[in-house]
Records
---
Amino acid sequence: MNNTKIKASIENITRLCQTSGKVFSIMEVCGTHTVSLMRSGVKSMLPKNIRLISGPGCPVCVTSQGYIDAACELSLRDGIIICTYGDMVRVPGGDGSLEDCRAKGAQVKIVYSARDAVAIASANPDKSIVFLAVGFETTTPPTALAIKEARAKGIENFYILSGHKLVIPAIQILLRAGEVNIDGFMCPGHVSIVIGADAYKPIVDEFNKPCVITGFEPQQMLDGIEAIITQLVKNNIYVENVYGVAVTSSGNTIAQKLIAEVFDPADVVWRAMGTLPASGLELKGEYKKYDARAKFNIEIGQDRHIPGCRCGEVIQGKLEPSQCALFGKKCTPANPVGPCMVSSEGTCAAWYKYGS
Amino acid sequence: MCLAVPGKILSIKNASQEQPENLGIVDFNGSQVEVSLAMVPEAVQGDYVLVHAGYALQLLDEAEAKETWDYLEQAGIEFDRPRNE
Ligand code: SF4
């Protein structure tokens, strides 16, 4: 980390803020940004009139209880092996977590990659493998490729439970609801590799808010914040890409084609936000046969409320974790009550670990 | 879950009848993992790629890859085995 450069950035940002005298509310959409801003100390170095708000970008946190409940129910059926990214096993559903199911004898395997789940299917032809396909545009093309791999290899016992979500509709819905005051967005670097910088244009067009794509290193995040404030001060709002080393205007078109080939947009339930139109993805056409919901006749139901947990408001940036009465008391990373405390990228977990 | 990590392609196994996509053995500062190169078909041996959950998303230049490694090391984020959470 180049400290002189960091210092210069902070000074620039402070100067910009002082000249304008306004308060700037910036939402970091992505959970990795949230953690990185806190861990690196960047958040604490910023002038007081910059308010950083964490957004709905932690895929684990936005996964609905109904989804976890469906996964739990499947895991307890005979002959099914659940394969999942590690963070998911501790997320509470309406009725316990996958870890609890494991204790009851369910087979739940943690995989590093969707490819590993296909390999497990191939090695266990007498079992049905259900891969918990969650995440935004970084994990969706891999799910599509895994399905295509299973098809090419003639593997008949591989299914997915799609919980995939889309970043752009999430931001649009948040802004249309108008309940949170947001002046600009730090857009997620790695999702943007896939969708491309141009994907944010509709947000700028409709809401006139700066969308700045940044990486995860402290200097990159500071460059992003400086770019947002500069746009606001000059009242010249556009999509700006300060992570040009990795992100292009059009994104990874192969990855986009994979998503479009295998999935259709669908209404999905977000944790504590309800069903949001066309904000998720479900399998389409010939790929429907890989859908665990149809194969095992299972519904993803609505959320039941977890008493006291205010994750829904935290995810939407309406509330800071410390404003939840359970924060740090009944709810800690060792004993999480809500999903925002489970995931290492969850806002509550980040606040607990790094302080506010 | 959303952090992609840079790695260097040591070797490439081209797609075949049994394996529909190009695979690469990718080195993450010491540990080697098999990664799908389906989304970066232009990648050749020696290239750096940004890898997320076993799939390369993007080519990266060497300087940027090394800078990211340095940052991850400094921040104490484990990446010798690419993370999935
Ligand atoms: S501190 Fe725990 S209970 Fe409160 S909002 Fe966060 S995850 Fe939910």
---
Amino acid sequence: MRLYFTADNQAEDRLQKTFLRIIDILNDSGVLVMSNLAAPNLAGFSTQDLERIEQTGEAMLNQMDALIIEGTKPLSESGYLIAIALAYHKPILYLCQKGRLINKNLVQLQKDKNTSHLLNLEYYTEKTLEITLAKFLQKIETSDGKESPTIKFTLRINSRIERYLQYKTQNTKLSKADFLRELIEGLIDNDQNYQKTTEKK
Amino acid sequence: MVTALKNIMDNDRKKIYLMICNQSTNLKQQDWLEQMPELNILADVKPVLIFNQPSADITPKIWLKLAKEIQQRFNQTDGFVILHSVDNLLYTSCALSFLLQNLTKPIVFTGVQSNKPSVKKTEIRANLINSYQAVNHQIAGVSVMFGNRLIKANQALKSNTEGSLNVFATPINVPSLLGRIDFSIRTFSKTGSAKEKTKFYTSLAEKVEVITVGPLINLKKIANQIEGCEGIAVNAEAYQNLPTDLIELLGKSGLPIVIWSKNISNPEFLPKNILLINSMTWPSALTKFLWVLTQTKNNKGIKELMNKNIAGEIIHQN
């Protein structure tokens, strides 16, 4: 899972520590985080990826699974990022420390039937931060009950595995990719250590 | 710039006019915008319908109407976004760069290329959002925003990359790129105002004959067509030499003539009324000629103005 996380890099030290904590929590959950706080900003993309994106004119945010904004201190670019994320139907988590007010335009936008399912506005404290992030990650993974597989990567296999996949999928309605996906979903469901790690958050 | 952007989501949102020059929808403009509520968090947008036909039908009359509508609203807004299909977009945007000179505000052309409804909807949303953000960055002048590129309109070329959302490209080795989008817009151009006062022009030459050089060119027909014309614009893009009979005919006509070509470089052999131009794109050369003919009828004056950088259109000197 790839996320773009943005926050005010000029904010006071106390907030900067919270921002780094957010990145740590996400990294520990197995999420690849790209952020305006981290240099280089585009880490996670190969040179070829970046060239392809530049040539095809695709939006970088469209390559992400979601957007997280820490908006306790208002950010100049957050309106733009939220608009682009909504255009590409990406889930958004807008975080604000308890005691501060979330911008009224965003609150209004959350009430709109076209955007409410994607825009999550959440107040948090240091204590509730982990659980807020964990719930959001869970929501991304299970949005609308089932997530459609959209992440692509190249898996090289040898002829033995290929033969086995052919054997397991012939005369079934499953493709080899479906078979492997189901196998991995089963592994996730039965991996108690992984379950504990994600539930803890 | 940071200060200017600081409160985008607050009450001092930029005021933007969305000038619609495109048959984009059967819905009323306001209904159409309401389907994209995310656009309102970036700016206070007011739609204005200019032309409700396919943009392939746009003529100089619509360019003048658009320029006039912009002029009327110029002091009430932070910038303009022009919604326009790809057909004729470079002509409209180039014409506007000559009709509205020394611009102190951004005028950003955008639209959609894809015909697939699902892609079209997302593409238009993203292009509009990026255009609004370009206005928020106050990049003065006329530009085009498609895909992840913001390009000076009168230097832009149609891109040849099939399937790319970057519909327009920059000329090779020319810094026409004003901005690039990754997670935000990175601008490569100085923001802010032009030093001189904005000039608004309200007319363009109406009787200009356009000739495209090719093997089937009919000189007799051309001779009839150019009667009563104010000038002639010749597109000889790929030619290294011009047809002798055509040059003779054009020379004898005595009319102001602009020949646009990338490859011909021996203007000394041309009659005095003919000017060879290769320092700008074809849409720039043609629309600039229409404007120049309203400023002077004198061959020397025309030559001087055509070679002068009026709106940042000169890519390289002749």
